[in-house]
């Protein structure tokens, strides 16, 4: 794991939660140990298991920990967008997306922040670049993820190997250029949406290899609906993208009139 020095910018790690009480204390402790200068924002969707209450208790003893109480289960994308907005209001320079279940290892966060400090606008922790790997995944899920990312890459014409991954860091200035008010996607699709927006806006997007570890406690939020949403939206976006490319090509080739 990286032993990088502290980041030179104010960093906020946004951790959305819904029924993650068993994981919360552990993940916060690991983040605070890996990057002591970073702040953490728990964005809780009114978890029935008391995750929000536990977050409040932990925050009372740690001035680097903050809690955002949301009215109910509104989805991963909405939680992150709320967290991004809060980060901008509070003046953080870098915003990190991280799952609460430990699948995104906080010990690898310095790897992402190093690339931000080196000038990247967005850094994606990637399972599918050389050096990246997954632990405790069934082969069927690996095939689904690899295949989905290949489809995204071909449909949208982007160079990323892991556009669906949720472990990433953004400069606040980069998020400000991505027209986040128009984002309506959730789950994997939310991650693809932001990746594509970053590239379309000419931002410097990098991938670094990570080891992704399947959760040991709690229930995965992955569902068939999330997968279907991602495939359908990417298909529509890809079709529109190709039409736009064709229209631009026709305009370029059209003879000058007059």
Question: How does this model look, in words?
Answer:
The chain has 258 residues and is an alpha/beta fold. The protein has a single domain (11-253), classed as Spore Coat Polysaccharide Biosynthesis Protein SpsA, Chain A, CATH 3.90.550. Helix content is 45%, strand content 16%. It has 8 helices and 9 strands. It has helices at residues 21-34, 51-60, 76-90, 109-117, 139-156, 172-176, 187-200, 224-253, and strands at 11-17, 39-44, 65-69, 94-97, 122-126, 133-135, 168-171, 205-209, 211-213. The strands form 2 sheets. Strands 3-2-1-4-7-5-8 form a 7-stranded mixed sheet, with helices on both faces. Strands 6-9 form a two-stranded parallel sheet. Strand 2 (39-44), helix 2 and strand 3 form a beta-alpha-beta unit. Helix 5 (139-156) runs parallel beside helix 8.
By CATH, the topology is: Spore Coat Polysaccharide Biosynthesis Protein SpsA, Chain A
- Secondary-structure element series: EHEHEHEHEEHEHHEEH
Instruction: Name the CATH homologous superfamily.
Output: Spore Coat Polysaccharide Biosynthesis Protein SpsA, Chain A
- Put simply, the count of helices is 8
Output mean pLDDT.
Answer: 90
How many discrete domains?
Answer: 1
CATH class assignment: Alpha Beta
Helix content class: 40-55%
